[in-house]
Amino acid sequence: MNVVLSITKNIHNWLYSMMPEWSAHLLEMILIAIVYLGIFAIAGLFLVLMERRVAAWFQLRIGPNRVGFQGLLQTIADALKLVSKELTGTTRADKFLYNLAPYFVIISALMALGLIPFTKDFQAFDINIGIFFLIAVSSVGVIGILLGGWASNNKYSLIGAMRSGVQTISYELSIGLSLLTMVLLTGSLQLSQIVEVQKEGWLIVQGHIPAVIAFMIYMIAGTAETNRAPFDMVEAESELGAGFHTEYSGMKFAYFFLAEFINMFLIAAIATTVFFGAWLSPFGITESLPWMGLFWFLLKTFLLVFLMMWFRWTFPRLRIDQLLTLEWKYLLPINLVNIVIMALIVWQKLTIQI
Amino acid sequence: MSYFSNIYNGIKTLLTGMSVTGKYFLNSRKGVITQQYPDNRATLKMFDRFRGEVIMPHDENNEHACTGCQKCEIACPNGTIEIIWDRGIDEYTGKKRKKIDKFVYHLSLCTMCGLCIDVCPTDAIEWGQNFENSVYDRTALTRVLNKPNSKLRAGIED
Predict the structure, then answer these.
(1) Where are the domains of chain A?
(2) Cβ neighbours for A352, distance < 8 A, ≥ 6 positions apart
(3) At CA A54, angle to CA A50 and CA A56, rounded to 5?
(4) Strand partners, B97
(5) Beta strands B81-89 and B96-106: pairing type?
(6) Is A60 in contact with B28 (Cβ distance < 8 A)?
(7) Interface list for B 13-32 with A (CB within 8 A)
(8) Residue A193 above 80 pLDDT?
(9) Cα-flanking dihedrals φ and ψ of residue B83, to 5°?
(10) Which of A13, A125, A133, A289 sits a CA distance of 20 to 30 A from A172?
(11) Residue A315: which of B17, B22, B36 has the nearest Cβ?
(12) Would the pTM count as exceeding 0.90?
């Protein structure tokens, strides 16, 4: 029945029968880390390809379709090329911070990935403050961007990094508050608990109007959080070269690039978990097949990723003052009112339960 | 109250934009503008105003419209066109007059400015659609545009 999970259980039992408990434990952690690194790399490369194909379709082009079937190996070829590139740097850069920065970005993305409930029991780390941990970890990533911009010894990088600081700190508020709105419904921060609550209807249905508003705010703030167009003040090709990673080359650049796409995946995955019932199938149509949860989870996540790509290829970019006006004058007040409405709805039991 | 109407208008216009791009996305199969060039070489058709190279069209009797007036040679800013001419008996009128011997066109010098074609009084030369001009030897880019044994079409000079 549950093939994948029985395999992991068998490996678990086998390891514990083979060696003392502490080493088995350690080995298991290493194995899980390797599995997640694999997911990270594959998801990142696939998302880059998806971005390029979707962008091409929006612009009536074809996109990469030469390397492998329909261009499936294109991004792997790109990654191999980047591995073979020289790692250059500016002369008076702060070498230690300069080399440290990409790892901050990538490790924070990887830590957040461990919390995502891909399907029932396929979750590396089911901590009881799940949502809180996700918000906290995803804001650690901005330190990497700030360090990279500061240590590059380049004006454009520094401006890009400072903009990133402004933007991320502002929009963290909206992300946090819109997720808090949904936490009022679930009554728990633990991700598995949140999924459990949604067996009586996805939260976007349960919470109806305020949930939809919270979802819209979350998607806007999430797009800003990942520094994607229309909020790409950080990279801003037309103004700042490439922003904070102007001076990075080769694999260090690829780390920033992959982390950006993984962050996009994470934002979509959190939205799937909190608003769209994570791995739960619509109307419970595949409830008897637990492994279908993975399919449903990825389907919903990629639909949301597509939505973010749609934003990118539709909306004009914002100026930095418009960016801050949008956050502090519109999203934040709406969000605060929305929390009160949601609290009233939960108090009066006006939620829709299926 | 402009605060709420701003929000309403903002959402409305953003959704309008998304519907426009969404339509393009859904129709991207049919409306694709990318030419996958070496693959579609057989069916590739260049657009009307494409400037590939200067050609001199000949009709089925191997006749062209070039009177050898040399206006194109004078108009050319970088000496791309060289007309080698001679005097000969005109077979229609029997008078002695100018005739082209060779219309030499150096493609390697040409900037595709089109002044020669604009200035030609008899429309003897025009734009060709060929753009695959890579050769191994530079001399292959020097072309004689009038075909061997070709002559002036009747009634051009009137």
Answers:
(1) 1-84, 90-347
(2) A201, A205, A206, A208
(3) 120
(4) B88
(5) antiparallel
(6) yes
(7) 14, 17-18, 20-22, 24-25, 28, 31-32
(8) yes
(9) -110, 120
(10) A125
(11) B17
(12) no
